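Design a sequence for this backbone.
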């Protein structure tokens, strides 16, 4: 955890998307092949023995590593998107985040009770998006749910982990 290569290549953008938010931009990690490989390797090592059958990638930065790691784990991908982006019947969950309210959805036929799910997103701040994704996935009653983030903000008083049920195992690659 707190890999120096990842920390050195992470871009921070002050006052984005609004004043007072210090946005952590993971696109600088994605464009660097060494960082991309490091993230993939670390996530694979964390989950290779967990029996993951599907990875739920959270729109949109969560799609990148979800796909890379799913291939290595032999798992499928489920897209968790904003309303109106998925073509078939969906299940939705609304939530509050640090700078507004939002809704996410997944296809109604994307998860079954035999699945072991890994939810993935780029950043854990308040936990609103991932908590909503967990609540959404729980509606399908999978065997187990894991949650993973590239970055977790721990020194900004947001305490995102505290919002998750104890049965959700959370892991991060970088804590700031």
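Sequence:
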């Amino acid at each position: 955890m707190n890999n120096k290569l990842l920390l050195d290549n992470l871009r921070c953008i002050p006052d984005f998307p609004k004043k007072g938010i210090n946005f952590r931009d993971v696109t600088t990690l994605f464009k660097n092949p060494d960082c991309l490989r490091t993230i993939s390797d670390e996530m694979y090592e964390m989950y290779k023995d967990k029996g993951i059958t599907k990875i739920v990638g959270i729109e949109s930065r969560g799609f990148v590593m979800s796909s890379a790691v799913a291939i290595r784990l032999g798992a499928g991908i489920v897209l968790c998107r904003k309303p109106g982006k998925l073509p078939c019947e969906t299940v939705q969950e609304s939530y509050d985040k640090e700078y507004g309210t939002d809704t996410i959805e997944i296809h109604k036929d994307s998860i079954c009770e035999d699945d072991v799910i890994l939810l993935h997103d780029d950043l854990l701040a308040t936990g609103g998006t991932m908590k909503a994704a967990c609540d959404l996935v729980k509606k399908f009653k999978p065997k187990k749910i894991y949650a993973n983030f590239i970055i977790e903000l721990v020194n900004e008083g947001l305490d995102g982990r505290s919002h998750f049920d104890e049965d959700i195992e959370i892991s991060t690659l970088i804590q700031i």
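Helices lie at 4-9, 27-30, 33-47, 61-73, 128-138.
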